[in-house]
Please model this.
Amino acid sequence: MQMMSFYAPKNPIKGAYFMAHFNGTDEPYIFERDLVPPPPELQAMLFGWIEQVFDGHDDSVVEAWHKNCMEEMTGYDPDKVREDDVFFEAKPDIPAAQSGLEQSAHTDKVAFLKLMVRMRRVIIQDAVLCLQPVPGTGRTLSKSLIEKLPEIFQSQLFLDYSKELLQAIEQYRETSGAIAAGIRVDSADIIEAINRSASQQTVLNRTLAAMEAKYQQQLQQQHERHTQAMGVQMSQYAQLVKEFKEMRNRCLSSILSNLASITRLLSTLTSILNLLSTLASILNLLSTLASILNLLNILSILNILSIFNILNIPISILNLFTIMLHINNSNNRHNKRHSII
Model:
């Protein structure tokens, strides 16, 4: 395994396998506690500082490390990928003489941290079984977990996972007990089918729950946006109606004001026309009076001539003609002045 090749390769790993009652590293086996993997959110409560180890490096380094931690918690198998997909550079610049030693230390650091991430899963699964009452005693194997870490082992995430895992173990035991004794209940096919079924069911349930929650959230957000948009539109419509009424009232007021002004103007024009007509009548009267005065002047002159009778007839005719010209000129000037007015 890659974990063995990178982390503590000189330790007696094979001896540890035999102490755990395995005949070899390739022997098929199954742990009942591993039927249901704990959710990553619950695993992250243990050793929560691991994800922040490479904070301060480039964003790509931090993102790659978080991705590796998530893969380890979700059952990622490093034996099926290239070494470049698992390890990444997160070292400061160092002299060339120290680069080999620094590379080795960095590799061991990453491998040990990844081992701690994988141990999250094991610790939580074992805690579920350790906290179950021992048959016949009513006691648990360990109360210190709850006393020392209640924020983890009394959290709702842990309680939900514990219930789910215990149900899976009970179902597995019932299924395995119904199989004939000659069939290996720990054969690779049965183990893979059970693990895959339980894991897929868990993932499916969580996916459906997440999708339903997301759908409800989107539906609520859409309803709120629709309600808000309708409120804005109604407010805009009310404002438009108000502005239209105000504009209509202003237009009516302006029209009435203009009609009143036109009425006053027509009345003024009528008065002016009446005044002009009166002036024309006065001018005609003055013209008539002037004609009468001229006629009176002519008669006066004729009387004077007849009284004195000092001129002969030709002179009288000439004077009469002169008087008539004078009267005619006076009338012409009077008519011209009247036409100008």
Notes: The first helix runs from residue 2 to 6. The two ends are 128 Å apart (CA to CA).
